[in-house]
Design brief:
6-stranded mixed β-sheet, alpha/beta, 296 residues, 6 strands, single chain
């Protein structure tokens, strides 16, 4: 019988030594405890292919995969309402007010399946004045697209760069449309143009969504304007959004001196302050000082 075997009297140490003599070290190297296979993008990849070392490093250092289990550094409500929107934890903590633009972005960029089925890139811009809440609105869009609609969404972190080769590799691995969200699209102008050009040539499905200050876009946006599929304008808070903002300020103990006002007085005071801009209004409303006094 070819399946017979012989028993050999041998200690465990001698057995291991015999293995070492017969098998090359390279053939028994243990797999790394943590590898690119353990990254959050693995579930998005339908094949057995895995990110290259360059893409893995880019995902680790600069390109944030937005997903329900994403853990980022938290910010307090007091800090958030003064303009710090780092990370995504404040969305889970429900500090922000959901803006009307969120539905428009989701409807046109994610839910519109016929357009998204086309093997080509799309580029969208969200414009608004400085301090209008563009960064918050873009992160809210990224979060809802990823969590509520299971879209492959990636956020280019602050002070990071947009790398065309890595983004295209990622889109090819995922084999579906991916979304890349940029806080300040004008800062990445040349990289966005290069990415869109490469995606068109290779018929890659990538949607780029970026924010821009309206005045800066009007001056510096010419090179990108021909690539834009659609522009969205982030307008002032409406009545419902102001009321929700006041509810959140009260819930998180951030009304400041407005705690002494009646609900009607709070609404009128904040609406009046919003004639300047949202961020300035929050500073002045919660601290009871002019913005010039606050920054002195």
């Amino acid at each position: 019988n070819s399946l017979r075997f012989d028993c050999v009297r041998q200690s465990f140490d001698d057995f291991m030594q015999s293995l070492s003599d017969e098998v090359a070290p390279s053939e028994v190297t243990l797999a790394r405890t943590f590898s690119e296979n353990a990254t959050s993008v693995t579930r998005l990849i339908p094949s057995k292919n895995r990110p290259s070392a360059g893409l893995a490093n880019y995902l680790d250092a600069a390109l944030v995969h937005v997903h329900p289990s994403l853990v980022t550094e938290p910010v307090t409500a007091q800090v958030f309402y003064k303009g710090a929107s780092d990370g995504f934890q404040w969305i889970a903590d429900r500090f922000d007010v959901r803006r009307g633009i969120s539905d428009a972005l989701l409807d046109n960029l994610v839910i519109e399946t016929a357009r998204n089925a086309l093997p080509r890139p799309f580029f969208y811009v969200v414009k608004g004045y400085a301090g209008a809440g563009k960064s918050v609105a873009l992160k809210r869009f990224a979060w809802e697209a990823a969590v509520d609609f299971d879209a492959p969404v990636f956020y280019v972190g602050e002070n990071s760069v947009l790398r065309s080769n890595e983004v295209i590799e990622l889109a090819q691995l995922v084999d579906a449309r991916i979304y890349v969200v940029l806080d300040d699209v004008l800062r990445h102008k040349e990289d966005v143009i290069a990415l869109l050009k490469d995606c068109k040539r290779q018929r890659i499905s990538v949607t780029v969504v970026g924010g821009a200050r309206t005045n800066e876009w009007n001056v510096e946006g010419d090179a990108l304007s021909t690539e834009v599929e659609e522009e969205f304008e982030l307008l002032d808070l409406n009545r419902r959004e102001i009321e929700h903002l006041l509810e959140k300020l009260e819930h998180n103990g951030c009304l400041g001196f407005m705690q002494h006002y009646s609900p009607t007085e709070r609404f009128e005071y904040l609406r009046e302050k919003l004639h300047s801009q949202l961020l300035v209004a929050l500073h002045e409303a919660t601290e009871g000082k002019s913005f010039a006094e606050i920054i002195e």
